[in-house]
Specification:
Length: about 350
């Protein structure tokens, strides 16, 4: 048999190198580095730098890392990251390597707890006695604007429980409200506005008093009437005659009761307007004597329906406490005078 000669040594070495190259892969344009193979979806992995192949066929140098790269694997697919020497196998899973594993995202954690009570949010908390939300402080509500249960003297008027509340800063008739939050008499004021003798009779005079009371924010303005006499109706019969005090809006008592009011003298003059201003010695249409009777059958500006300079009507003076508060003398009807107004009994 013919024997073949052994191949030269050079040829044998080349064959070994070729085999190594086939096993480790061929170099690409970016240099030799780690490879990532994915079955199913196409994926991309950035190669590292300064990598190469040693004599033993293994990769040397910096290994490639994957930063910020989203890799999607298909069914029964395998994704390998050589930098971390970690292999992940999953079915239809999308993973993202952000490169930040040092802490926990702040968005994933929160702190909860009971915060301070907020009056008006409808929830009773903290030192709140009640909380009716938008109904706080509304008339008829059982909860005040500051989330406290209404009570006498708390500074909030509760019409369901109180006749009045003298400590309420919005309350005008403070002096007529007792410490028990009940009314205590009658209110009298002199109008801030002036009028000629043509008042429209008693009905027109009452309307002027009620308009003044309403504009001033007084309680029950429709209950006010003018202190004015036109025969056969006198001033005394037009106001409440009660065994309780009569007050000005500044709190001064003008009479202890009806008998005191009609005895010809006042404890204090009716010199305070519905706006709580003071008018001393201002003429006021009255045509009434100190006891409330009609002062004149003829000097009444034609039943207070005339503004003629040829007609006259009886007047009083607002700054007086003797009988002249209501019976000072006549004035021509073309002049501008005021009115005394008395409330209903509270």
């Amino acid at each position: 048999m013919k024997r073949h000669a052994h191949p030269p040594l050079l040829a044998t070495s080349a064959l070994r190198v070729g085999l190594v190259l086939m096993l480790t892969g061929c170099p690409d344009d970016g240099g030799i580095g780690s490879t990532s193979a994915t079955e199913g979806e196409d994926t991309t992995s950035d190669a590292g730098t300064d990598s190469g192949v040693g004599e033993d066929g293994y990769t040397t140098g910096d290994l490639p890392t994957s930063t910020g790269t989203s890799m999607t694997t298909g069914e029964d697919s395998t994704s390998t990251t050589t930098g971390d020497l970690t292999t992940t196998t999953d079915d239809s899973t999308t993973t993202e390597d952000t490169g930040d594993t040092s802490g926990t995202s702040a968005a994933s954690s929160s702190t909860t707890g009971d915060g301070p009570a907020i009056c008006g949010d409808g929830l009773i908390g903290g030192d709140e006695e009640c909380d009716a939300g938008e109904l706080n402080g509304v008339e008829g509500s059982q909860c005040s604007a500051d989330c406290t249960i209404p009570s006498c003297g708390d500074g909030h008027f509760d019409p369901e429980e109180e006749e009045c509340d003298g400590s309420d800063p919005m309350f005008v008739e403070v002096a007529v409200c007792t410490n028990a939050c009940t009314w205590d008499g009658v209110i009298a004021f002199v109008t801030n506005e002036t009028f000629q003798g043509d008042l429209g009779g008693l009905t027109g005079a009452d309307a002027r008093c009620r308009t003044a009371a309403k504009n001033a924010g007084l309680t029950s303005p429709d209950g006010y009437r003018a202190w004015l006499g036109i025969s056969p109706e006198d001033a005394a019969s037009r106001i409440p005659q009660v065994d309780r005090p009569y007050y000005r809006l500044d709190g001064e008592k003008i009479a202890e009761n009806a008998a005191d009011l009609l005895d010809g003298k006042l404890l204090a003059s009716i010199a305070v307007t519905e706006l709580k201003g003071t008018l001393m010695f201002a003429p006021v249409w009255t045509n009434s004597s100190g006891d409330g009777s009609v002062a004149s059958l003829t000097e009444d500006c034609q039943s207070f329906s005339s503004s003629s300079e040829n007609e006259a009507g009886g007047v009083g003076l607002s700054g007086k406490t003797d009988e002249t508060w209501t019976n000072f003398g006549p004035s021509t009807c073309d002049r501008y005078r005021r009115l005394y107004c008395f409330s209903e009994a509270f």
